[in-house]
Amino acid sequence: MLSDGEARADLVDRFRRNPGLIAVAEPTLRSDRALMLEVVKVSGHALRFVDDGLCDDKVLVLEALKRDGTALIYASPRLRGDREVVQTALRSRGSALKSCRLFRNDRE
Question: Which of 1, 10, 17, 22 is deepest in the core (most CB within 10 A)?
Answer without folding.
Answer: 22
